[in-house]
Amino acid sequence: MADETVFAALKRRVARAKERSGLAQLASELGHAVASSHLVADEARKLSRAFGRARRGRDAFDRGYLSALSDLLAATSSAMSDASERAAARQAIEAAADLDAIIVALGERAMTPTELAEAIGDAPNNGGWTRKLQKLEQLGLVEPAPAGDKRRRPRQLSARGHRLALELEAERPSRDDQLIADVVAMTSLLRCAREVTEEELCACVTVESDERARLVRSFLEAAEMCTLLDLKMDGRVRWGRDGERWDAVLARPDQLAEAFVGVPPDAVLTTDEVGSWQEALSAGAVRQVVDVVPFRLAEQLSRGFAACVVTDRTVARALGESIPHEKLYVAFPLGDDGIAVQPFVGSTLASA
């Protein structure tokens, strides 16, 4: 968006959500804001559909869900500014022929338009290459050209362009998704350990080393404002007041079971297989757990349940079997009986 980040627009939309009851329209706007930055776009569409089915009597749940999602996104606002711009740039190059090939080629070395055309296999005298390079320059992926003959000026990628070239060449997951996963990993670690240091939070972050401290600091400031954690004078980070209310929700297994009626018996993981709920989070699932119902929602739910969404890899590791790729499952604690798992669909939580 011109002159503003996706997150600034998201913040204003969330503020409006507290002043009116048109949840379906607001959820549609939220889904658009999230999808435009390539942040969990598929889940955003599912949430929008769930909000669109909102009925009288469910306002507390839907408003809490909206607030919870906005809290998670806001925690990464400062670190995500560059990521959202690169996401928009990636959309642009995917919509135009040869731009991705140019990015990958320039990732190897700086080239003139003529050399670039030859490397990709096009006619060197094709003037379209200069225009394509100008497009990439406008997207912030290519450095401005030095003075001189246009056909002889070597062009090179910007820092953002180099990161995108690595992603395209290695087909790695989007850095945007990695940032969201890092925020969830920090909250999961804090929830399990109750008290950690900033260094321990940095250790579970996967972004580049020069951005780790900035991401952790952004997360701590946002979470402290929401009373999810307390920053102590000695530099340690402690689970906050909202975290304690979340624990109270986790202590009600009967309501948790009632909220997810119909879970197949073979989908319940016993404590012998997984150990405790916290052990499951801390022993391997921390990087894989994606909370779609985080902290502030706990006090908003009238039926009082808590759940998270885990990837197929997390569930497969716990069950010891293969599960189809790219499926998501709702996992929730059942007290001493273990953890129940069921396939996730967009309306699962809203219809509970």
Descriptive notes:
- The chain is α+β, with helices and mostly antiparallel strands.
- The protein folds into three domains: 84-170, Winged helix-like DNA-binding domain superfamily/Winged helix DNA-binding domain (Arc Repressor Mutant, subunit A, Orthogonal Bundle); 174-239, Winged helix-like DNA-binding domain superfamily/Winged helix DNA-binding domain (Arc Repressor Mutant, subunit A); 244-343, no CATH class.
- 54% of the residues lie in helices and 8% in strands.
- The chain contains 17 helices and seven strands.
- It has helices spanning 6-17, 23-36, 41-52, 59-74, 77-94, 99-106, 113-120, 128-138, 159-170, 175-193, 198-203, 209-225, 241-250, 253-259, 271-274, 277-285, 312-319, and strands spanning 195-197, 229-231, 236-239, 268-269, 308-311, 328-333, 339-343.
- It has a four-stranded antiparallel sheet with strand order 4-7-6-5.
- It is elongated and about 60 Å long.
- The protein starts with 5 loop residues before the first helix and ends in a 9-residue tail after the last strand.
- Residues 20-24, 30-80 and 248-352 have low confidence and may be disordered.
